[in-house]
Design a protein that fits this description.
Number of domains: 3
Shape: globular
Helix content: 25-40%
CATH superfamily of the largest domain: Chloramphenicol acetyltransferase-like domain
Distance between the termini: 67 Å
Length: 419
């Protein structure tokens, strides 16, 4: 019996998605609740599982198509074996006719070979980013062991394989190495890739934030000596007791809670002609995901201890890498912390995450000379930035909030006695 697979409910206010990649091809056997396709929504990628066990017989939509909730996307023949012949009605991916090209170089041949290998072996599921990496580096995806969810290849897997391949080639005698042919004169490659739904949404939201909010940023610098000393002193005991590493984000989250308690407008937002204040602190923490930066929410930070905050952030980081974040994880949030320092940023002007009214930007720690009690000493310093919506938050309030965070980091005891 044929069972139709449709687009499930995707979350509050989300009515459509884009087909990101097919995890199963026509003719593949599927188990109950086994994902068959990945859909990209405005915030996260959602895997759609099969409701029955059998064989996938038909794709009703192609990668890149926009589908609405309830739309038919695939058909599964319940109870059939994997030898069942797939239907021929699956739509082929849209492509423009290729213009004539000059004779391909060896590198182009390698890419073409990798593309054929990737296409021939339907058991290797690759996202668009991974596929581009395979083509760019000319590696065979069938020889790479995936480290992602369900054994899927990640971009890091491909880059590591390419590095190993390059190292192996370097070890060959120079007499065996073929000299690369020079590139054709005037040959310059370009690639045109459609923006993912998530990237489109990020672009719209950030542009909207610039147009709707009166953005301003205030800066300060923080002596990280006390926090570094506390981490060094207690990191082993902390990890042993709580089974989680003591990081910097826990300190900044708790320091932010002090500031938002004393300056409520920084934890509020504008809705129509009203100001919505919150008696809780839900902090959106920016973490890296394969498709871009996402901001899952650590809820009730004001009521949580360091250990639970660190566990929540670590869990979000892992799930973001695996693509397991849900719409619920991303919804809400009253304040955002973004740590550009992990990428080496010295200073930036972070942009708010609407409808929130403020965002704290953290940056890299570096030893700098500072004057203390009339003497120049070297201290581990970090620039911190608070971007805020000036329609709601006055400059005095923004500076005060950032100063409270600075004081709490430089004297962590303040967090224990609520100062």
């Amino acid at each position: 019996m044929a069972t139709q697979i449709t687009v499930p409910a995707l979350g509050e206010s989300v009515t459509e998605a884009t087909v990101g990649e097919w995890l199963k091809q026509p003719g593949d056997a599927v188990a109950v609740d086994e994902p068959i396709v990945s859909l990209e929504t405005d915030k996260v990628a959602v895997d759609v599982p099969s409701s029955v066990a059998g064989v996938l017989t038909e794709h009703s939509v192609a990668v890149g198509d926009t589908v609405e909730v309830g739309a038919l996307i695939a058909t599964v023949e319940e109870g059939a074996s994997a030898s069942a012949k797939p239907k021929e009605s699956a739509p082929a991916p849209r492509s423009a006719p290729a213009p004539s090209a000059p004779t391909p170089s060896p590198k182009a041949n390698a890419r073409s070979s990798a593309a054929k290998e990737a296409t021939a072996d339907s058991s290797v599921t690759m996202s668009p980013a991974v596929r581009r990496a395979v083509l760019e580096h000319g590696v065979d995806p069938t020889t790479i062991k995936g480290s992602g969810k369900d054994g899927r290849l990640t971009k890091e897997d491909v880059l590591a394989a390419a590095k190993n391949k390059s190292a192996g080639a370097d070890e060959k005698p120079s007499s065996e190495a073929a000299a690369p042919a020079p590139a054709a004169a005037g040959e310059r490659g370009t690639e045109r890739v459609k923006m993912t739904r998530m990237r489109q949404t990020i672009a719209k939201r950030l542009k909207s934030a610039q147009e709707d909010a009166a953005l301003l940023t205030t800066f300060n610098d923080v002596d990280m000596s006390a926090v570094i000393e506390a981490r060094t002193k207690y990191k082993d005991l902390f990890a042993k007791k709580h089974d989680i590493r003591l990081g910097f984000m826990g300190f900044f989250a708790k320091a932010a809670c002090l500031a938002l308690k004393d300056v409520p407008s920084v934890n509020a937002y504008i809705e129509g002609d009203e100001i919505v204040y919150h008696d809780f602190v839900d902090i959106s923490v920016a973490v890296s995901a394969p498709n871009g930066l996402v901001v899952p929410v650590v809820r009730d930070c004001n009521a949580k201890g360091f250990a639970q905050i660190e566990k929540d952030i670590a869990d979000f980081g892992k799930r973001a890498k695996d693509g397991d974040l849900t719409m619920e994880d991303m919804s809400g949030g009253t304040f955002t912390i973004s740590n550009g320092g992990v990428f080496g940023s010295l200073m930036s002007t972070p942009i708010i995450n609407p409808p929130q009214s403020a965002v704290l930007g953290l940056h890299r720690i570096e030893d700098r000379p500072v004057a203390i009690n009339g003497e120049v000493v070297i201290r581990p310093m970090m620039y911190i930035a608070l971007s805020y919506d000036h329609r709601l938050i006055d400059g005095r309030e923004a500076v005060t909030a950032l100063k409270i965070i600075k004081d709490a980091i430089e004297d962590p005891t303040r967090m224990l006695i609520d100062l």
